Amino acid sequence: MIAETISPQELQSIGNLQSLHAFSQRVFQPEPGERLVFGEGPEHARLLLLGEAPGEKEAETGRPFVGNSGRLLNKYLENADIAREEAYLTNVIKVRPPGNRKPKMAEVKEAAPILLRQIELIHPAIIVCLGSIAVHAIVDPKSKITEIRGTWLEKDGIRIMPTYHPSAVFRDENKRELLKQDLFSVATMLNKLG
After folding, report:
1. Residue 41 near residue 65 (C-beta atoms within 8 A)
2. How far apart are alpha carbons 74 and 82 in whole angstroms?
3. Distance from the CA of 48 to the CA of which of 86, 123, 159, 170 falls in 20 to 30 A?
């Protein structure tokens, strides 16, 4: 999945998302017939929605959250009065893992420097971590989503809302209302921050 070693000096010299996207295309190796999914949204969005890795539809189109999970997320964002087009959407891992498996912690560690630079360049006020992989990448690798979901955290001046990934709702109906509640909490915080 990662084809090249990431140089911290080179990464810090990248000053915008377009250049970071080009850098990511050198570093990440998608499967044949698939595309890199870097992210989309306003370059300086106040809200960043962070998933784990692209699924099949995402790898096909090169866009984040366009499959079933994305449609569900869009519906819940709309219900919470959050405009998707005003948020930046991305994933920890920028290419689909082989067999659509869950990313391994070693892959998360390898991908983290690019993600962290992406966050620095966007500088959102709020990050919504959608699922445990997102939480492990930017909060703590030992965190349990079931213990911290729905609780506001703060890191480097950015407010973080850990919640379930929309795909979790398909496997466990009880998580549906919790995900909705968390997105309403995010909407309230966005309004509060102005």
Report:
1. no
2. 9
3. 170
Burial 93-102 (b: 16+ CB within 10 A, else e): bbbbbeeeee
Per-residue tokens: 77: 């964002």
d(CA 111, CA 11): 12
CA distance 160 to 163: 10
Q: What is the pLDDT of residues 36-62, one digit of tens each?
A: 999 999 999 999 999 999 999 999 999
Burial label, 163 (beta-carbon count in 10 A; 0-12, 13-18, 19+): buried
In contact, 77 and 116? CB cutoff 8 Å = no
Specify whether the backbone of 183 is left (phi greater than 0), alpha (psi in -120 to 50) or beta: alpha
How many whole angstroms separate alpha carbon 108 and alpha carbon 176? 26
Rounded (10°) angle between helices 175-193 and 68-79: 50
Element spanning 158, H or E: strand 158-163
- Span between the terminal Cα atoms of the chain, in Å: 39
pTM over 0.85: yes
CA distance 118 to 17: 7
Both tokens of 78, joined, read 């709309």
Choose among 194, 166, 159, 160: nearest CA to 180. 166
Residue 98 is given by DSSP the state G
